Structure formats: structure tokens, C-alpha cells
């Protein structure tokens, strides 16, 4: 028999649009000779719908869409769609089998993840019954996403007579996630002995980005079909007994995957929220240069407007490199000097600041002037302001609230500075065949600087980025103690200082715009720390 995987980019809350996309996929799969089509988790309403599922009007609209889809889909096709099912006994993350013009049966998710970016136990009730159905001479059992991350549901499907395990998913991307999913699927194969067909969502949803990369495993744990990452489409498998064959698409390497994740996240946040264009501040530094390249790749250079806002401290090469890069990309470019505005601020505050030396206050005023200008452009033209700060800066608080943090989407929010350099080199490698580099090499080679005072560099305020990022990875992403970090060979004074900077900057991060998650622990849904706290993790250092 032929089975289709619909690896689709769906939108939370667009019930009618998602249903139309599912119907089109069902018709296409039927025309291609498929007997069964598997779609992602929560495909009717998008994932994660969060507290929308608590609204009775929302779940009623989803249920009506499922019924309408069942009536409109080819009756011979077995179609699996996901939706929030509200019934007398609870609210469930469910998958329905549509066939013959009706909802034939429904499976309710057993294991509700309640960690990392997931809080399904907050909104859903647990299911406990298996669901097995016949199609094309084979018996198929259903598990939903988190069900295969725990033992039990796969075995119950086997005991109910399943020959194959179908797993609709909305599994968000982070570094090395494909490898992790494969290991989990193989552990369920060891548990239950059932070959597995895993269908995943693709697309961006706020700070989450879904990579697709659906696959099939045979009983030996071999990947017998691999769908591409970051690509929407229908992909077909041929099943015979417990064997399966399908196309094999190579998955991207680490930097390629991260870059693709950022591009897709920007494209979908921009498109799904209906913005007309993008504005961003171009400084001549590597962070804004990489953000500009991602934006142009995501939505096209004709929709991107870069703004250089020089001050008295802006180096001439920053302006030169910015002009050079926008020509290479073909984006719109403006220069707006901030000196007159900044001088006006200083003059108006002179009485209040009398007798006080200039300090970071005046530096922050420059950043806030730039933020105000970008937001004015956003208001006037209906554009999205992309902020350009990276994870290292956000972690250490090396960012200005209402200044360079002002905007709608923080593209590099979960990208450490050391990875920013790797991504810049990766993006340049894509066009190096023609000897043409999108990001001028001088931008990559220059020491990073905020250019808010004379001869300033980032390393005046921060440890070297290779040291800083290693400590941040240990403290933020792995929750290691200060002692454990020092035991890895880091200087105790530097560790104490970095941890203190991270903790003091929590209030800033709470006010930062969302940005795509690409590590296992981002600032946002993943890491939830109190702003007001007397606990001092660095206090156990000698």
C-alpha cells in the first residue's frame, strides 16, 4: 500500500486555512494512489495553541472543521488529523481517523509533556486507550508525539494488534534534535518491536520553529525513509508487511540547520502576522550584518529596509561596510544621524545631571535614540523591527532596554556570539562559488564594539566571547553550579562575574521581544527564573 506523510506548515488559530490545506493534501494524496495520509499533531488548529484550547468556542470551531473535513475528503482515504477534542470527560490532545465521510475513531494522547517549552498538562487531560485501525491489509496503531518519549503507549498499540506505529508530531527544533528523535524512536522499537512512521510539523510559531524531517524506521531500526528538513510537502512510502521504502533526503549539517531555522522563523513570524516589511538597525557590526542577511533570505531584499544611525563614535569603516553590504544584498538603505536628537536629550537633562560625569547613561541614550527612530519607522510603515542582539549579550545584560532591545522579533536571541561568527562564514560560503560574499570580510574580522564611546570594544565589559559562551552554556543551558563550572578549568572570578551578570539581567530579558529557539534552553519558554531573588549561585565559590 502507499502511505503519505503531509509535512505541512500550519498556523495556530487559522482553523479554516489549516483545514483547507489538509483537504488539498488529502485530495493530492488520493490522486497519487495513497490509501492513508498522516498529518502532524494538532493539524487542525496549529501547535502550540496554548490557552486558546481552553476556550469552548475555539474547540467547537475545531470540532466543526474536523467534521467538515471528514465529509469533504476522499471517502476511500484514511486521513489522520490532530485537534483539541472537548468531550464530557475532558479536553484532549487528539488524533482523529477520518474515512468514509465521517470521524471513524479518535485517539487521545497519553503522555502530556510538561517540561522545557511544553506545558500540556496545564490544558489537556490524559488519554489511556489504544487506537488501532485496519487499512490496506495492515493494522496501524496511533501514538502522538510525546507518547513515544515514554514507555507504555507503543506496547499498548502492539497488544491491540498494530503492525505499524503512526506518530503525528509537533516536535520543535533545537540543535541535534533529529538525532535525539531518532534515538527515542529506536527505544520504542526495542520496547514494542513495531516499525514506526513519524510525521512532523514544519514552520515557525512565535519562538518555536519546527523542522519537519519526518522519517520511517523498519523493525531493524534502520531509517528506510527520510523526509527533508525545513521543507513543506507530501512524501510517500510504499509498505508491504513490515517493510517500507521511501525517498532519502540528506539532513543539513549543524550550521546549515541553524541558519535554515532562523530564516524560516523570520519568514513565518513576518508572514503569519501580516507585516508589510522589515526595518533593522545596521551598525557595521557582525550581529546586524548576519541579521540583515537572514532577513533578506527570509522575505526577499525588496521588503527589507536597513537603517544606519551614526553617532560621533561611529567609525567611518562601520558606515563604509554598511553601505557595501546593502549594495551586495540589494536592500533599501537609509542613514539617519542621531547626534541632533542625542544632543537635545543631553541638553534637556543637563539641569538634572549637573555636576555628574558622563557614564553608561549617555551611552544608553544613544541606543534609545536609535530604538525610538526604528519604532517610529515601524509605526509609520507597518513594518516589523528586527532586533540584532545575540544570546551572549542578552545573557550578560549587555543590551539596552528600550534601545537596541526595542523591536518585534529578536532573530539572534538564542544564538551565542561565537556561533554568530560561524553562521556568518556559513552564509558567505553559500555564495563563495562566485567569489561573492554577502557579509564583507572586514565586518567578520573587526573586533566587536557597541561604538557608544571612544575606542570601545565589547571586551572592555565582557570576558572574551569564547570564554563567556562556554560559561553561559554551562550555567544557562546545563544548570551547572558555579563550583562545577570552575572545576572545568574556568577562573573563579570570571565565573562569579558572569553568573552575577546573568542573574541581574533577568528583568531585561522579560521585556525582550520573542526570538527563535535553536538551543535546548532558550531565554523565554524554556528558562523561567524569578526577577526578584536572593539566591546567589556564585555564593558557593571560595
Description of the molecule:
With 542 residues, the chain is an alpha/beta fold. It folds into 2 domains: 249 residues, 4-Layer Sandwich (Nitrilase/N-carbamoyl-D-aminoacid amidohydrolase), CATH 3.60.110; 214 residues, HUPs (Rossmann fold), CATH 3.40.50.620. Helix content is 37%, strand content 19%. The protein has 16 helices and 20 strands. The strands form 4 sheets. Strands 5-4-3-2-1-14-15 form a 7-stranded mixed sheet, with helices on one face. The chain has a 6-stranded mixed sheet with strand order 6-7-8-9-12-13, with helices on one face. α5 packs across α11. The protein is elongated and about 85 Å long. The termini are far apart.
Beginning-to-end CA distance, first to last residue? 67 Å
* Total number of domains: 2
Parts with pLDDT < 50 across at least 5 consecutive residues: none
Mind telling me the CATH class of the largest domain? Alpha Beta
Which superfamily, in CATH terms, is the homologous superfamily of the largest domain?
A: Carbon-nitrogen hydrolase
Judging by the overall fold, what is the CATH architecture of the largest domain? 4-Layer Sandwich
GO molecular function, one term: ATP binding
Protein name: Glutamine-dependent NAD(+) synthetase
Pathway: Cofactor biosynthesis; NAD(+) biosynthesis; NAD(+) from deamido-NAD(+) (L-Gln route): step 1/1
Binding site for deamido-NAD(+): 364, 393, 508
